Amino acid sequence: MLKNKLLYTAKKEFWEYKNILFILPVVLASLFILLPIISVVTHDYAMDRIFKLAQHVSAQGTHLNFSNFYSAAASFFAAPLLAISFFVQLFYLISCMYDERRDLSIMFWRSMPVADIWQVAMKFLVGVLVIPVIFMLSATAVYLVFYTIALIGSVIFAVGYDISLWHVWFDFGFIKAIANAFYMILPTVLWLLPLFAWLLLASAFAKK
């Protein structure tokens, strides 16, 4: 029964804030994918650099260590999205309680069979942990899209230019890089926990 109540409360939060919890991450991820692709397609020198890089990687063979590259790539995609998610967290926590008091929707939600403590706990969980996880999932999606594009590029180089890059795909450092990026969310959240708690408290009592 408690599980159903918590699930209902979570659905309510996602329904109320779908713009920042779903639409914004999807739009940002789409821009992170489309803008580099457009930049590469419209600039010949970018294609030349990619071709030279493929030749270099192929010549080096298995002597190259890609773990640092995968970590840097994960950070490149995750850092800006997580920075944006921080401001989204601030916006959500400072407004979630105030908005319900302002439009009196709190009267409706309090009539539901869910205790106030669970309502507040769910808002705090969404603001503190769920939002950065959602944005991190967006960064992971961008990462995997470019990983797939690179894999397709390897096929093209192998078939059309006799440049073998298959040894790259036997290094699964990208999985560790993604896992480390998710892991870093937890200590960051714990470090900022007092700030997040204060914002939620202010949202509950602020007059404007």
Report a brief summary of the structure.
The chain has about 210 residues and is mainly alpha-helical.
SSE topology:
Elements: H1 2-16, H2 18-42, H3 44-60, H4 67-102, H5 105-110, H6 116-160, H7 173-183, H8 185-205
Helix pairs in contact: 1-2, 1-6, 2-3, 2-6, 4-6, 4-7, 4-8, 6-8
What does this structure look like?
The protein has 208 residues and is mainly alpha-helical. It has eight helices and no strands. The chain has helices at 2-16, 18-42, 44-60, 67-102, 105-110, 116-160, 173-183, 185-205. The two termini are 36 Å apart. The mean pLDDT is 76.
Estimate percent helicity. over 70%
Which word captures the global form?
elongated
Average pLDDT for all residues? 76
Rg over alpha carbons: 22 Å
Quaternary structure type: single chain
**Structural class designation:** mainly alpha
The beta-strand count equals 0
Poorly predicted runs of 5 or more residues: none
Order of helices and strands: HHHHHHHH
| Strand percentage | under 5%
Task: Please give the count of helices.
Answer: 8
How far apart the termini lie comes to 36 Å
Largest sheet: none
